[in-house]
Amino acid sequence: MEIPYIVNARKDTGLNNSKIAIWLFLASEVMLFGGLFSSYIFLRVFADYPWPERALPVLPGLINTFILIASSVTVVFAWAGLKLRKWNMFRANMAFTILCAAVFMVLKADEYNKKLHHHASQTEDYAWLEGHLDKDHPNQYTIEADTINFSVESTASNYLDAIITQNADYPRAYFVEKLYEKINSGDLSEVAKNSYKEYIELSKDVLPKKIDKASKVVVDLLEEAHALPTIPTLAEPYKIRTIEAGKFTETVLYSAGTELSPEVLAVANDEFIRARTHNQELRTQLLKDAWNEIRDVDKHPELADIADLESKVKSAVTKAHNALIDKAEENNEFLIANGNMMFNSKGAEFSLNTGWGRISDSTIGAKYSNVSLLDGTVLSGTAGDSSIVYHYVDGIDFRHLVLKAEAKGLNAEELIERSPILNIHDHGGHHGGADIREIWEAHKVWRGFLAADLLTQDDWLTGEGRVPTEVDLYRVTWHQMVAYDKLKKEMVVAKKISANAPLKDAITAENWMRINGELKPSMLNDVKSKLPEEIIATFPHHVSIERDEVRFDSVFSPKMNNYYAIYFTITGLHGLHVIGGAIVLGYYLFFGRKMYLSNPEWLANRVEVGGLFWHFVDLVWILVFPLFYLM
Prior knowledge:
Blueprint: H1 17-45, H2 58-83, H3 87-116, E1 119-123, E2 128-133, E3 140-151, H4 157-184, H5 190-202, H6 216-226, E4 233-234, E5 238-244, E6 247-254, H7 262-294, H8 311-330, E7 340-353, E8 357-359, E9 369-373, E10 378-383, E11 388-397, H9 399-407, H10 412-417, H11 426-429, H12 436-455, H13 470-474, E12 475-476, H14 478-493, H15 533-536, E13 541-545, E14 550-555, H16 562-591, H17 593-598, H18 600-630
Antiparallel strand pairs: 1-2, 1-14, 2-11, 3-7, 3-10, 4-7, 5-6, 8-9, 9-10, 11-12, 11-13
Helix pairs in contact: 1-16, 1-18, 2-3, 2-18, 3-16, 4-5, 4-6, 7-8, 16-18
C-alpha cells in the first residue's frame, strides 16, 4: 500500500504529510524546552543559595554556537542542491552538516568530562573549596571495622567483592603502612631506610612469608601482620528450621567462625526467602481460620448480624488471629526468617566509595562509627582517616557563607577568617603555588581597589556609585590565582618585592587592573583537555580537609545543585537531539541516492523536514548559550 501525499501537497492544507507531521512534532518540542527554560528561570529566581554565574567556559560554548549556525546554513544549501538537481552539492553540504554535529558533540563531551572530574567540598560553615582530587587518595570512607552486618537478600556483589578483597589484603597493607611509619619517623639511618623501601617493594603485591636477613623489628612486624584476619568470620551460628514429615527441626546452617563468601550469603538468602514465604503462607491460613471461627454462629452468636467491615468484627478477628499466631509460635510452626548475618572483622581497615553510602561519624578515631551502604550492609568500628585530599585547588567561594551570615545578622568577614578552608592542614598545601590563605589575602587587596574604582562610576540605574558583585567580592577563580602568581613573579623580577614577600604585596594601585586584564589566562585554555602544567603549578597543591569538617561534597554533576541539574537536563536533551538529527541527516546522505534517482523531489522534501528539525536544534542552543555561559 502506497502512502499518499509524501511528495505532492494535500489540497486541503497545501502541505505534504511529512511537513504537517514535523510541525506538529516541533510544537511538542517547543512545549518541552519551553517548560525546561521556564524551570530554569524559576530555579534561578527562587534559589536559596548563590546561583553559579559564569561557571561554564565561554569559548567552547561560543564555538559550538557558530558550529550549529554554520550547519544550519549548509543544511539549507544541501536542500538547495537537491532542488537544483546537483547531487554533489547536496553531498558536500550534508557531509559538512554532519561533521559540524560531530565536532559539537566532541566539545560537549569534553565539557561534561571536565565537570564530572572536577570536585567541590562545602565545609560546615557553607564555604566551598574546588579542585581536582589526588589520584592516590580516592574519595572514600575509611573505617577500622570490628563487625560487618549483611542484609542477605540485598547485598550488592560489588560491595561484597570490595569488602572481601580489602580484608584479604589487610595484612599486607598493614605491614606496608607500618614500614612507611618507621621510615617517616626519622629514627632510621639511610641504610635502614633503603632496606625498608626494599621490603615495601617486596610486599607490593603479596605479603611474603619471611624476609631473609631482616631485623628483629621487621620480623616481628611481619609475624604480627600474618596474624591479622584475612577474611571476616561469622559472629554467631546461623540457625534455620526445617519441616520433615510434619515435624519442625532446628539446625545450624553455618557455625560461628565460618568465613565470609558470596556462596554463604547466597545460601542464607535462599533459606531466608523459603522461611519468609512459609511464614507468610502460614499467617494467611491462620487469618482465614480466624475469620471462620468468628463467623461460626455457635461460637460467636453476638456477631452474627454484624457486617464484616464493622470495627467490632475486625477487632474480634484480629484478637483471634493473634491467638492463633501465638499458639503456632509455641508449637515452633514458624520458620526462622533471619535476613541478617553478622561477621567479625577484628579491626580490619576498609576504604569504601562515598557514593556507596554514608558514615555516621567521620571524626578520626571516633568509636562506634558506622558506614551504612545502600544495600543495607553496615560496617561498625572506629572511624579512620576519610579526609578529602585535593591534588590541587583551583577555586574558593565564600558567597554561601556570606548569605547565611547576613541572614543571621553575623559578621561575614569574621566568619570567613575562621573558616576551615583558610585554616586547612599544612596552611592549605604550600607545595607548588601559594597557600589558600595567602591567595585570599591577595584577593582582599584586589577587591579593595576594585570597590574604590567602581565607587567613582555612577550606576546608570540608581545614579549612585557602583559596587562589586558577590562573585567579585567572595569568589576566587583559577584565572585570578594564575594572574596573582604572574603579577608577583613580575614584581620579583623587577626587584620591587622579594621572593619571600606575601602575595598581597604584589598588588598595588598601579597594577591591580591587570588581574582581569592582560594577566588573565587565555580563553584558549578552556578548549584544552587539560590545563598546562605551568598553570597548574600556581595552584595550592596537596590540600587535605578532614571529613568531619565537610558538610557536602560532589563532582559538578546534577547532585551538586539545581543549576547543574537543569544544566545537564537541558544540554543533555539537546545533545540527544543533535545525535538524533545527525543520524537522520546521515541516512539521507548515505542511503538517499535511491530516493533521489526515483524522484528528486521526494528526497528534497525529506531533507527539508530534517532541516526544519535541525533549525530548531540550533535555535535551542542559541537560547542555551547566553543563559548558561554568559549569565
